[in-house]
Specification:
heterodimer, A: 255 residues, alpha/beta, 38% helix, B: 515 residues, 3 domains, two-stranded antiparallel sheet, globular
């Protein structure tokens, strides 16, 4: 498990972001973002709140619109064409801070909904896939309960399973552990580590620096809408270059 | 931890001591009465006062109720029988029950038809109301019910509703066909349909412009107001004259352009198909079929409908139409497209700003002006359109509340899984928004059902109209109040209370937080 960082990264490009800018009204949230993600890479994005890290990964599956520059996911250029957007979204899984499970559907239905309606998978097959991934996140016995009956950690693991059921090629995590109690963080992180070991391309916005050290092969530090610094975890934590990174690391690791 | 405990502690209880009952003052009825009725001096006084009032009401009402006369020919006979003692005259219900239920013009030998339609309504509603227990294939029966009910209530040839049903099914086929076409085939279809729709729209607008000019010349006589109205109509007319050709070209071209993604052309083709079939297909086809195999019931006109039956008909039709229309309006109001949003906002705000009774007068009087004589819509249909519009506007606002209450994360989760707008709305957003909206929708539905009695002001004899008109003004039952109104209230209460109970049951069924 400790060799996670040495897991292979192919030369194939998964995501290319070029010179991307985004504004909320007149507020400049993202400035000149350039980022290339190889297939199989595991990237952790950190930075102070309001630095635009969530916005960045939400732009990748077009939950947020960018106003300048280009984003190319899996060879598909992100434009305002709805068909392109839906195609990209079905290839890119996403986990949210507040899980966003569908409360009116059972766990199993949450997991089979998108495969059945988007991928047109037969119901039986979709349920088998769902059970496979629910076993993977270790909650197959909760399949027929509703999200409201599960703990936060369980809900987040279901959310991961729900994304995986679409067999995505890229997974985005938007602060997946920030809304969880400490003892539940570990169960979610374990699931994510397992996923990383299988070679999933992952972009995680998180403050879990242990996770970053263990599985990431690149850590990106963002501040004020810019990518300030990016490096391999060892170098990033032991030898930060920019002053802002040093300050941030001293605050987050200091206590 | 419990293991170590068990080894180190000498005694561990294996069974629980049975709980001893709480003291008598703290349990059962005594506790309830103490806590709820006599919890302080103020509550004690209020309880006693309430008790006194209840007893007085019961003492007052019971003799009236139990001395009631059930067998008499007129209100005078009732008074003779009662001879001054307090007592109700329920004989009016026995004498006029059929008028209260069916109106005074519905053919007596056909009473079985609305009765059967009512029973079937309950049966047909079951698969929709209890969809979680009844297999969805039974919904076909629910879908067929309106056609059967139409035939039972209005009579005529059975082939008419069958032909309408066939037209609807054919339209569905057309929709699927156009939707499934290759882009090149659809381009040809879009060209033809675009041309036809463009020319048709331009022609209709041209006729409208002529009509507006005609109206402007006929309203211009009376004073300042007339002059202003005339000017307004003239302006509209000129505006329409200027724009009827560009509008036709614009719409035709938009339809032609939609060939690549297929949305607009599919909808417009289906609309044209159903309009043509309804206007020119249904009549001849049904009369030919009726010539071959006649299946007919005595025809009954809308004017002959009345009594509680009319309320039920209006209530059932308007509620079941206004919920889907309300959903469409609510979604339209949230749309990103300014035109759709604008139309929905204007519609909702306008309709909500006008009293229902005004709309009913419009349905009764004004609409007759807009349609050429003889071709006018049936009165029942006009009233249905108005009440549906009215309640749909209210339901739209209730559902908008439900939509607003959903966390943004639900939309984002649906989007991030690759569901398109239709799928996300149908599978994720609406089920939750409607669940939140149930109490509000039921509130509107119950209100609508009771508002159907307003049709009595446009001389339709619903149950209230029957009581106020033919019953209270007959020589036999002149000025009888309490008994028929009590009957009407009971009818409405039964239906409204059932709706309310059903909705509460449904809310419990849909509760998924904790079981």
């Amino acid at each position: 498990m400790a060799e996670a960082a040495q897991m292979e990264v192919s030369d194939e490009v998964a995501i290319t972001i070029q010179n991307m800018n985004k504004w909320y009204g007149t507020f400049h949230v993202l400035r000149d973002i350039d980022l290339t993600v190889q297939r199989g890479e595991r990237i952790v994005i950190c930075g102070p709140s309001g630095s635009g890290k969530s916005t960045l990964i939400r732009c990748i599956n077009a939950l947020e619109e960018h106003q300048a520059g280009s984003i190319e996911v899996d060879g598909t250029l992100l434009s305002s064409d709805l068909k392109n957007i839906d195609k990209i979204r079905s290839e890119v899984g996403m986990c949210f801070q507040h899980f966003n499970l569908f409360p009116h559907l059972t766990i199993l239905e949450n997991c089979t909904l998108a495969p059945i309606w988007v991928r047109k998978t037969p119901k039986r097959e979709a349920e088998e896939t769902a059970m496979h991934f629910l076993e993977k996140v270790k909650i197959p016995d909760q399949a027929n309960k509703y999200p409201g009956q599960l703990s936060g950690g369980q809900q987040q693991r279901v959310a991961i399973a729900r994304s995986l059921c679409m067999r995505p090629r890229i997974m985005l995590f938007d602060e997946p552990t920030s809304a969880l109690d400490p003892e539940m963080i570990k169960e979610v992180l374990d699931t994510m580590i397992e996923l990383a070991e299988e070679g999933m391309t992952m972009l995680c916005v998180t403050h879990e620096m242990g996770f970053a050290r263990q599985v990431a092969n690149r850590v990106i530090f963002m501040d004020a809408g810019q990518i300030v610094e990016q490096n391999e975890p060892e170098a990033f934590f032991n030898n930060p270059q920019s002053d802002r990174t040093k300050l941030f690391l001293s605050q987050i690791l200091g206590h | 931890m419990s293991d170590t405990h068990a080894q180190t502690v000498a005694f561990v209880r294996e069974t629980e001591i049975p709980p001893s009952p709480p003291p008598a003052m703290e349990a059962g009825a005594v506790k309830w009465v103490r806590e709820n009725l006599f919890s302080g001096w103020f509550n004690t006084i209020m309880t006693l006062v309430a008790l006194y009032i209840i007893i007085r009401i019961v003492i007052g009402v019971f003799p009236w109720f139990f001395n009631g006369v059930w067998d008499a020919g007129s209100i005078r006979e009732c008074r003779d029988i009662l001879q001054g003692t307090t007592g109700a005259c329920f004989a009016v219900l026995v004498d006029r029950w059929d008028h209260l239920l069916f109106g005074f013009n519905y053919p007596q030998d056909a009473y079985w038809r609305p009765t059967l339609a009512f029973v079937l309504l309950i049966v047909a509603a079951m698969p929709a109301l209890f969809y979680m227990y009844i297999p969805s294939k039974f919904l076909i029966g629910t879908a067929l019910y309106p056609f059967l009910a139409y035939w039972l209530l209005w009579g005529g040839s059975l082939w008419v509703p069958i032909a309408v049903l066939a037209a609807i099914i054919l339209t569905g086929v057309v929709f699927r066909l156009v939707e499934g076409m290759t882009v090149s085939t659809r381009t040809v279809v879009a060209g033809i349909v675009g041309l036809a729709a463009g020319v048709g729209l331009a022609y209709l607008l041209y006729l409208g412009a002529q009509e507006l000019w005609f109206i402007s010349t006929s309203v211009g006589q009376a004073g300042l107001f007339g002059t202003i109205m005339s000017l307004v109509f003239k302006l509209c007319s000129v505006f329409t004259y200027v724009f009827f050709i560009p509008m036709g070209i614009f719409v035709g071209y938009a339809i032609y352009q939609s060939a690549s993604d297929g949305g607009l052309v599919t909808v417009v083709t289906s609309l044209i198909a159903i309009s043509v079939m309804m206007l020119y297909g249904v009549g001849p086809v049904s009369s030919v079929l009726n010539g071959i195999i006649p299946i007919e019931l005595e025809a009954v006109e809308s004017r002959q409908m009345g009594g509680f039956m009319l309320c039920m008909m209006l209530g059932a039709v308007c509620v079941s139409l206004s919920i889907p229309l309300g959903i469409v309006l609510a979604l339209g109001r949230q749309s990103d497209m300014p035109l759709i949003k604008g139309v929905c906002v204007v519609f909702i705000e306008f309709v909500r700003g006008v009293p229902l009774i005004t709309l009913l007068f419009v349905a009764n009087v004004m609409l007759a002006y807009f349609f050429p004589p003889g071709s006018g819509l049936d009165l029942f249909l006009r009233v249905v359109i108005m009440i549906t519009m009215f309640s749909a506007a209210y339901i739209a606002e209730v559902i908008r509340g439900g939509l607003a209450a959903l966390p943004k994360g639900q939309y984002e989760a649906a989007d991030s899984l690759g569901l398109n707008y239709t799928q996300a709305t149908r599978l994720i957003i609406l089920p939750q928004a409607l669940k939140i909206s149930i109490p509000g929708i039921v509130n509107v539905a119950v209100g609508l059902f009771k508002d159907t009695t307003l049709v009595s002001v446009i001389s339709m004899f619903d149950i209230v109209g029957m009581i106020r008109g033919p019953i209270q003004q007959s020589t036999d039952w002149i000025s009888i109040y309490w008994e028929p109104y009590l009957f009407a209230a009971t009818c409405f209460f039964i239906v409204c209370y059932s709706i309310s109970q059903y909705s509460q049951w449904l809310e419990r069924q849909l509760q998924t937080d904790h079981h």
